[in-house]
Write a structure and sequence with these properties.
two-stranded antiparallel sheet; single chain; 2 domains; 276 residues; Diaminopimelate Epimerase, Chain A, domain 1; alpha+beta; 39% strand
């Protein structure tokens, strides 16, 4: 089965995007993992499948990690999918439906895409955590990182605020913390260094994907957790290895994320060439 694909990225956080709005595609967890393989497939941080949005939405976005697991949210992918939905309908706005809910998006004057990522969920059951505790201070530490704050942005996030990102062995700490027993559904692990109330440096180990150049939902989580800790203003630039996102936490609880999108290349893929 041969179908078109588009390789897109937001600040280097890259995606293979398939369009299944007109007809369904035979995408299984095993096939998604094979396509995402950077040596034997196309390679990506997540495989994105665009499906019919249904009433009130322009498109439904399905997010599959490189290990085949499904995620409820991905901020950079939301901007990419919103860009495609706007492009196809010649619109300046679009609503992307996800497992987390409907995410309205708009194209700004500078060409970047801004997405309303919804409200963070702050309860321990929402994250989720393995037992009841204060999500602002988790009893967790490893390798110089300690006392993270946790929340859900449609997927679980724990943010460690550290004095020096460069002093951490994130490639070692990330997988260990992702799989900690405190996170029954695993977690995205953010390592954040506050540079100023309006500027944060962030590296994220993504659940099911590993280190990525950028994580939109992780940037939203880090900003919210920083505000909760009294470390950040409600609007800040979040600098990730791939570039900067502009994040704001409005008084009504909604988190806004703005940043660029890009298409690296397009092509055709034979789905039958990958294991089902």
């Amino acid at each position: 089965m041969i179908t078109p694909f588009r390789k897109m990225h937001g600040l280097g956080n890259d995606f293979v995007v398939l369009d299944a709005r007109a007809a369904s595609l035979p995408i299984t967890p095993v096939r998604a993992a094979a396509i995402a393989d950077r040596h034997r497939g196309i390679g990506c941080d997540q495989l994105i499948v665009m499906e019919p949005g249904g009433e009130g939405a322009d498109v439904f976005m399905r997010i599959l990690n490189p290990d085949g697991s499904e995620s409820g949210a991905c901020g950079n992918a939301t901007r990419c999918v919103a860009e495609l939905a706007m492009e196809g309908a010649d619109l300046g706005t679009a609503t992307v439906r996800t497992l987390f809910g409907d995410l309205p998006a708009e194209r700004l004057a500078d060409g970047t895409i801004r997405v309303d990522m919804g409200s963070p969920r702050l309860g321990w059951r929402d994250v989720p955590l393995a037992r009841e505790m204060d999500t602002l201070h988790l009893p967790l530490s490893a390798g110089g990182a300690a006392d993270p704050a946790a929340l859900s942005m449609g997927n679980p996030h724990a943010t460690f605020f550290v004095p020096d990102l460069d002093a951490l062995d994130i490639s070692r700490l990330g997988p260990m913390l992702e799989h900690d027993a405190l996170f029954p559904e695993r977690a995205n692990i953010g390592f954040a260094q506050v540079l100023a109330p309006g500027h944060l440096r962030l590296i994220v180990w993504e659940r099911g994907a590993g280190l990525t150049l950028a994580c939109g939902s992780g940037a939203c989580a880090a900003l919210v957790n920083g505000v909760r800790r009294g470390l950040l203003a409600r609007e800040a630039v979040v600098s990730l290895p791939g570039g900067d996102l502009r994040i704001g936490w409005r008084d009504d609880g909604h988190v806004l994320m703005a940043g660029p999108t890009a298409t690296a290349f397009t092509g055709m893929i034979d789905l039958d060439a990958f294991p089902a």
